């Protein structure tokens, strides 16, 4: 029986969940409670939950996220004695491929040149238009996934959630200019591909190199379609104690590659039961990086562009810089995979950046908007220190004092999320704004 009259704000959380599932369910429950009146109590009712899910679906929420929302509300209501059996609402069909109609992709394919990059781009565009797939699916394609048949070819598309392949059969078209079968064969034979990824990077000398990553394929698609996904540099502005709501809405204009950001020192004091403080200290430790997926072919081309007129020396310098950055990025990913606790307060451990945002890259509009909305800062924290202070006020309690520097803003959004995820702890947040003539410097680069 549901606990009639129990406020939703005082609902008992479900038990027996993993930490990640508990955080995801808690976020969905908070979003639901935020849409209800303050005096709303149990039982919730199936009609209210169905209406909320339909509103989320109309707002464009993906079906996978709606599945999590339904499971979260079902688990929370079950923990409070109410059983729900809610049907998922119909979701709108999301545009795939390059995010444009097939006619634009076919038109872009006709404009590709006869050189090796043109052959690759034409095959990529035609497969995106014919199979109706995006950059993620194109990056997963391998030579073994594409099999020739008597009247065309068969493409095995991997479904990441199930791990199974879905076969798609393509026939030869009468118009050879837009025949995906013909142009895939031309690109495969010209690049002499025998194994590995279906689409590779090509250097300035026409040599086929490493597989194209998801950002690399997006770059190829954007270039062929004549569009760009890189945000413009923002104008410098004065900082306040906390970013306004309008700053979150305009976060797409922020650029993580901006020169010399302002750094703010912040002190966060965490106090509460000793065992909870100890668990938080372990949960907050991490390598202190954001594991972006980097397209080093694009980075090398970007480095070479302003000095291309210098000839072979510029090409060599760009290649050496690319190898150095690629090596450092590989070391950082190794630390991330090993869970190296180099940073005592790692925002990516407490508020993880989603996989699609990591694939978009650090300079994309989506990454800037997500970081500003969920972290409040666009770069990892620096000079993170922690001090365990003995709490003399209450027995069996403990305190941790974190100090760190953050770019442009104190990470208010991340700290608010952490405060909600750890309700048994008390967080005291104090930014310290350094004046221009102060002895302490904020230059932590």
From TrEMBL:
| InterPro entries per UniProt | DNA_brk_join_enz, Integrase-like_cat_sf, Integrase_recombinase_N
Q: Which BP terms from GO are recorded?
A: DNA integration; DNA recombination
Instruction: List keywords of the entry alphabetically.
Output: DNA recombination, DNA-binding
MF annotations from Gene Ontology: DNA binding
Region of interest (Disordered), residue spans: 230-250
Q: Does the keyword Phosphoprotein apply?
A: no
Q: What is this protein called?
A: Uncharacterized protein
Q: Which organism is it from?
A: Komagataeibacter europaeus
The upper taxonomy is: Bacteria, Pseudomonadati, Pseudomonadota, Alphaproteobacteria, Acetobacterales
């Amino acid at each position: 029986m549901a606990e009639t009259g129990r406020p939703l704000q005082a609902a008992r959380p479900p038990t027996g969940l993993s930490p990640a599932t508990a955080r995801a369910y808690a976020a969905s429950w908070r979003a639901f409670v935020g849409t209800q009146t303050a005096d709303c109590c149990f039982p919730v009712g199936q009609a209210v939950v169905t209406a909320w899910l339909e509103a989320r679906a109309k707002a464009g929420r993906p079906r996978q996220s709606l599945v999590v929302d339904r499971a979260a509300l079902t688990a929370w209501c079950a923990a409070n004695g109410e059983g729900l059996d809610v049907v998922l609402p119909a979701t709108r069909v999301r545009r795939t491929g390059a995010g444009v109609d097939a006619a634009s992709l076919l038109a872009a394919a006709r404009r590709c040149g006869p050189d090796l990059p043109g052959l690759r781009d034409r095959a990529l565009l035609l497969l995106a238009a014919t199979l109706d797939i995006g950059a993620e699916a194109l990056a997963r394609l391998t030579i073994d996934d594409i099999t020739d048949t008597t009247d065309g070819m068969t493409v095995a598309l991997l479904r990441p959630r199930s791990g199974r392949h879905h076969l798609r059969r393509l026939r030869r078209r009468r118009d050879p200019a837009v025949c995906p079968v013909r142009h895939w064969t031309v690109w495969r034979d010209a690049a002499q591909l025998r194994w590995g990824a279906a689409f590779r990077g090509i250097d300035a000398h026409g040599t086929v190199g490493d597989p194209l990553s998801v950002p690399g394929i997006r770059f190829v698609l954007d270039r062929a379609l004549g569009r760009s996904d890189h945000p413009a540099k923002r104008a410098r502005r004065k900082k306040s104690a906390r970013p306004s709501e309008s700053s979150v809405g305009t976060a797409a204009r922020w650029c993580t590659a901006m020169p010399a950001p302002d750094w703010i020192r912040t002190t966060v004091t965490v106090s509460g039961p000793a065992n909870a403080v100890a668990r938080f200290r372990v949960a907050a430790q991490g390598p202190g990086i954001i594991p972006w997926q980097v397209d080093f072919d694009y980075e090398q081309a970007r480095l070479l562009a302003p000095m291309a007129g210098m000839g072979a020396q510029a090409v060599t310098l760009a290649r050496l810089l690319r190898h150095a950055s690629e090596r450092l990025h590989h070391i950082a990913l190794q630390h991330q995979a090993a869970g190296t606790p180099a940073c005592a307060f790692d925002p990516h451990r407490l508020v993880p950046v989603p996989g699609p945002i990591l694939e978009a890259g650090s300079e994309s509009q989506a990454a800037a908007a997500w970081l500003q909305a969920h972290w409040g800062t666009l770069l990892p924290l620096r000079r993170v220190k922690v001090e365990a202070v003995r709490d003399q006020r209450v027995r069996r309690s403990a305190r941790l004092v974190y100090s760190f520097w953050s770019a442009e803003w104190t990470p208010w959004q991340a700290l608010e999320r952490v405060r909600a995820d750890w309700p048994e702890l008390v967080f005291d947040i104090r930014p310290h704004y350094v004046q221009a003539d102060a002895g302490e410097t904020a230059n932590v680069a």
